Amino acid sequence: MSLRQTMLVKAEEVEEIKNLIQQYKAVGIASLQKVRAAQLQELRRKLEKSANLRVVKNTIVKKAIAECKEKHKIENLEEHLSGSNIFLFTNLNPFKLALLLEKSRVKTTAKAGDIAAFDVIVPAGNTGLPPGPIISQFTAAGLPTRIEAGSVWVSRDTPVAKKGDVISARLASVLSKLGIKPVDAGLTIKAVYDEGVIITEEQLHLDLGEFRRSVEEAHTYAFNLSLKAAYPIPENIAFLLQTAHGEAYRLALNAGIPNRDTIAYLLRKAHAEMLSLSSRLATVSEKAVSVSSVQKS
User: What is the reported pTM?
Assistant: First the structure.
């Protein structure tokens, strides 16, 4: 390709990226490091209705950014243009985009130099592999083995890597033979430009479990406060009415005020007091008769 043709192709790429920046409200940058082609194709399929994905050189994006003067502070995105990247153009909320990418991550077999996504434990049991050179490979990886029924067995559950450890070529080979996939593969958002604001990877990370607990805790505090303040809202009105009814009922009982709710209780109470008084009067009468008889004698 001649120099002129190369320049024309680059100019077309710059124009395409410029149009995408102008078309969408958000531009995301994700690292392509250790992302395999098959994973990228699957990601394109999953996000085809949510985002427009483009793999282009950083220099092309810089030139496109320079021509998008109407995009407020779009130039701040340039500081994140390093390494091999894929660019995501979308109208999604940046946090929703980050969650979609997080959910699209897949477990895959390890290669030398990959990072373990979790504590890797080889379970005890039959590997289904015949005895041979594999035994020395297992031993080198720290796996205790035995031969049984013509197969190699792992004698006990054995941890071989912790989360964050770099996986060696030897261990990667063993884990691949055992069908263990210790690598979490997918795109990781480095930064998103969203209508003038740059949101970084750290800011995009959401702990949904912790966020849900925080919301639930705040709801509980607010609900209890509304009860103590007797502030009626749709969520507490039934409880407040029950509380008010209970307090009014007890007040009416203590004051002896008859109404359709208290009359039965008040009558039972009056009847019980009448019986108690009657029994006392009988006792008093008996004592009076006894005293009178003694005095006469």
Answer: 0.59
